[in-house]
Amino acid sequence: MSRTSGQVHIIGAGLLGTSIGLTLSNLGLDVSLEDSSPAVTKLAIDFGAGRELKETDLVSIVVVCVPPDVTADTVISALTRFPNAVVTDVASVKSSVLEAITAGNADTSRYVGSHPMAGREKGGALSGRPDLFVGRPWVIAVEATTVATAAEQIEKLALDLGASPIRMSAAEHDRAVALVSHAPQVISSLLAARLVDGLDEDLALAGQGLRDTTRIAASDPKLWLQILVANSEALLPVLSHFSEDLNKLIVSLQEVESAGALSVIAKTLEAGNQGIARIPGKHGSRNTAYASLVVMIDDKPGELARLLNEIGHAGLNIEDLKLDHAAGAQVGLVELSVLPKIEAALIELLATKGWKLAG
Amino acid sequence: MSRTSGQVHIIGAGLLGTSIGLTLSNLGLDVSLEDSSPAVTKLAIDFGAGRELKETDLVSIVVVCVPPDVTADTVISALTRFPNAVVTDVASVKSSVLEAITAGNADTSRYVGSHPMAGREKGGALSGRPDLFVGRPWVIAVEATTVATAAEQIEKLALDLGASPIRMSAAEHDRAVALVSHAPQVISSLLAARLVDGLDEDLALAGQGLRDTTRIAASDPKLWLQILVANSEALLPVLSHFSEDLNKLIVSLQEVESAGALSVIAKTLEAGNQGIARIPGKHGSRNTAYASLVVMIDDKPGELARLLNEIGHAGLNIEDLKLDHAAGAQVGLVELSVLPKIEAALIELLATKGWKLAG
Fold first, then answer.
1. Which of A66, B129, B213, B252 could form a disulfide with A359 if both were Cys (CB 3.0 to 4.6 A apart)?
2. What is the pTM of this model?
3. A97 with A218, same domain?
4. Given B222, B235, B273, which is nearest A217 (Cβ)?
5. In chain B, beta strands by DSSP E
6. Is B283 domain-assigned?
7. The domain containing residue B207 runs over which residues?
8. CB contact at 8 A, B132 and B19
9. Which residues in chain A touch residue B289, judged by CB atoms under 8 angstroms apart?
């Protein structure tokens, strides 16, 4: 079943290490793991993420899943400890890690950096999930000097974990994540920081927009401090451009009567529209267009099941479903996303069965 | 049933006007409506949001649901056209509207501004939903000069629509929405604007963090230009503080070796943690804690129904449900949120029935 063969050893049993261990163990692979904390090692083993490492083990692949600031040292030591293994890491920054490893006197022909674009706000072994990487991009950092067979082994590992491997250089990776991950983190944190001094009665008006824009501000400051510092070179141009745009907007709002001011504000909002249109769809394509229907159901056990039962009996497949539950209301709103080609059939079915469509 | 009595007339049949009309009509109230576009008026009437206005009508309440830049003029004209009615509006800014109405020579004793904290990215009559306001804050803008009975009538209207009325002055309202709504809109648009020049391969790494932080950047630029300009006075201090914080962070990232630089970055991230902790929970309380379980199901018609059927048969009620559908994978992930008191029963049921829990 699996593309990977041989024993996989995981160093660091946090969210990523544990999730990798769970999936590979489920595939029947021989997985060992260790964490600097013996208690965490034991927890992850109990959790089913792998077994303890034995002195006689012949490890084929080592996956280093430790915080960014100790990643390079851990990789260097792993290259020495496991002289026949290909070693990868999963840190969110790749250039600075690669530089430190190259500077350390290690056999870098067996090292291939990587980065799964997956995570949760909650860290730790118990947050590990076997599906964490399914459908997610997994960057395989390849340089001119990378040994092809080593890169292929890490690529197969990513495929076994359900991810979509993408090859790019460490520098390309760092530029990409500065834009799509690190800048959003900084901006979200700065926006949430504005709330610290807000009045309770002001915050009582918070809606979904504020919640969405600030959700990732709940992330771990210790981890993100390391990431931002390690990728400052790629991140700074994005933040500087943002700052210039913001300051232009502030000046325009200060003098809305002056020539061109309204145009600056309108263009900012329009650029936002254009930017968001460039984000690939949930399933990877740029134009995933599902048809979406909202059905009102009574808020009681079994109603949603009855709805989905009738849809299932008709052989219609639902791509996405969101249940929205209004406070105090006796109705729930079920948003069903389906392929456009079955939308008409679904509408007809719902009407026949007496379901109420909202909106 | 309803607290409101008499005929309600709605001016402007967009998302808000139509949603108000639908709910009040469902309650059995006599609702008339008009839109500057006769086609839109007809559409909203067909949709069930009300009937056409007749010359002989005696209107009790007028709800002005037009764009912010024409709100004041429409309110002034409504006060003249409907000499016995209390008039409210639902614009996202309140001080500038109030000033313009006060400056216009109208009977302001019958005017009470208001603002429902509800909306969708999609506008228009067909996006109207009878549940749009359920559980949402609805600001009733009261000043020292506001006539108590008039404010009470608008408060009852908000309650009939399922909203939670909150009294504050126009100035207090504008300060609050600058922080929790208008600043997030600006920041989200500016962040999304950074993507316009991004490379396709960089954007391919986009994850949920980027999607959440930029979601509201898809909002209507024409509407938001009006809102930002109308509320620039309250918005500018928030944006200026943000800009100062951002610039401090940029300087620290440029010189991470200098004294205090790391501390500035760490404090920014920690302030983000503190800020997000101040946002009240989805249902208005600060600590809505649902227990959350993730079940893996096969991706075929009827599987979700079977799951929910079994939960429904056991008499267990689901508060929220999210179906996540991994690209290319033959499994779906169903996140079930339930009241903590039934979590154990649900886990037992799922195990008995052979469902796989993820994570």
1. B129
2. 0.80
3. no
4. B273
5. 7-11, 31-34, 59-64, 86-89, 114-116, 137-141, 164-168, 291-298, 320-325, 331-338, 356-358
6. no
7. 174-277
8. yes
9. none
My answer on whether B39 and B131 are in the same domain is: yes
CA contacts within 13 A on the Cβ side of B144: 0
Whether residue A43 is found in the same domain as residue A153: yes
B349 touching A (Cβ < 8 Å)? no
Q: What is the pLDDT of residues B312-345, one digit of tens each?
A: 888 888 877 777 654 444 567 788 888 888 888 9
By the CB < 8 Å criterion, does B209 face chain A? yes
Sign of CA dihedral A121, A126, A131, A133: positive
For chain B, the domain total comes to 3
Q: In terms of domains, do B297 and B267 share one?
A: no
Residues of A in contact with B213 (CB under 8 A): 184, 187-188, 212-213, 215-216
Amino acid of residue A324: D
List chain A residues with CB under 8 Å of B128.
359
Domain assignment present for B2 = no
- ipTM of the prediction: 0.79
Rounded CA separation A9/A41 (Å):
12
Q: Are residues B36 and B142 in the same domain?
A: yes
Residue A251 and residue A178 share a domain? yes
- Cα separation, B338 vs B314, in Å, equals 14
Helix (H, G, I), strand (E, B) or coil at A165: strand
CB B54 within 8 A of CB B29: no
B40 lies in the same domain as B102? yes
Which CATH number characterizes residue B223's domain? 1.10.3660.10
The C-alpha of A81 sits at a distance from chain B's nearest C-alpha, in angstroms, of 31
Domain end marker among A146, A168, A190: A168
A181 and A231 housed in the same domain: yes
Judged by CB atoms within 8 Å, which residues 106-145 of B form the interface with A?
A: 117-119, 126-131, 134-137, 139
Read off the amino acid at residue A269: L
Per-residue pLDDT band at A329 (split at 50, 70, 90): very low
Q: Are the Cβ atoms of B269 and A225 closer than 8 angstroms?
A: yes
